[in-house]
Amino acid sequence: MKKVRILALTALAVSALSFIACGSTPEPEAAPVEPVVEEPVETPAVEEPSEDYSDANKALLAKVEESRKAAVAAGVEDADPNGLAAADAILEAQKALADSDSGDMSAVLNDLNDRYLALEAYAKAKAKKDKIDSLDYSGYNKSSYDAGVKILEDLARPESNLVPGAARLKQAQSAEESFDAVLNSAFKALAKEERTAAYEAKKLADSVKASVSRKADYDAAVKNFKDGDSNYVTGNPEGALANYTKAKESFNGLYNDIADKRAKAQAAIEAAKARVQESENVAIEADAQAPLGDGEVEGIEDENARLLEEDDFTAAENSTVEVSSDIAEPVEEANE
């Protein structure tokens, strides 16, 4: 019993000591950890090699040179010498720069190429205007003519050289299109008139059977007529006009030549008949004075004698080529 009591007192003493130890001296707090600041590491810059545009520049310069040649061939030296000189000055400067600089020159050279293309279109437009004026065709499409003239006047001003090449090219092409419209209207109207005249001339040639007596010439005239139709419906009224004119002249030539020869032949027949009649009158008078009977007399034609062979036109029905009196409009216009 005594032993149990000793154990209980011992346990109580240990508990008390533990309580005192916990409450008397607190454990020290841990010091805060400061963040580590890392110094940035500088990476040495690596210079990239600059791109070499030398070959691309040379190709563009060659393209510009070709555009310049086309402009000169179109007549720009007479049509717009100042514009050509301005473009040439830029070209020479760029050629000199290309020899010492391998940088990208595409922006300047593409603009310069457009300038030469614009000069070519300007020269062509001016030539078409001159053609219209010389033929007095402006009245066939006055609105398009006036629009083209206005654009040419704008492009002829010195300050127009300050306009970007692409804009100048668009203007010059618009002027050329305006004059094309005038010429197209004129040639269409004239081609229709000439076709009608050629058709009437063909009817005259058919009336004298030209397809029989002058078949090769007749067939050539028909071919010109049909070529005119082909050019007209495919949008080439100027070519059609030329074809119809040739056909008309050929058909008229055939008619006049054959008709003239027929007239001369008919005159010969009439003269022969007159001689026969005169011979008959002489014979009657002679017979009255000294009858010869019913026998033939040398030098006097029989009254039923055939003096000339009659024309044989049995093949004419199969040799005449028929063509239409009307013509269809070009496909693109018919669909509008």
State the gist of this model.
The protein has 336 residues and is mainly α.
What do you see in this structure?
- It comes from Treponema rectale.
- Helices cover 71% and strands 0% of the residues.
- By secondary structure, the chain is mainly alpha-helical.
- It has two domains: 137 residues, no CATH class; 106 residues.
- It is rod-shaped and about 165 Å long.
Percentage of residues in DSSP E strands: under 5%
Helix % is over 70%
In total, how many domains does the architecture comprise? 2
SS class: mainly alpha
Task: List key phrases describing it.
single chain, 336 residues, mainly alpha, 2 domains, 71% helix, rod-shaped, disordered N terminus, Lipoprotein, signal
Describe the secondary-structure layout.
Elements: H1 2-24, H2 54-73, H3 76-79, H4 81-98, H5 106-135, H6 142-156, H7 165-207, H8 210-213, H9 215-233, H10 237-289, H11 316-319, H12 331-334
Helix pairs in contact: 2-4, 2-5, 4-5, 5-6, 5-7, 6-7, 7-9, 7-10, 9-10
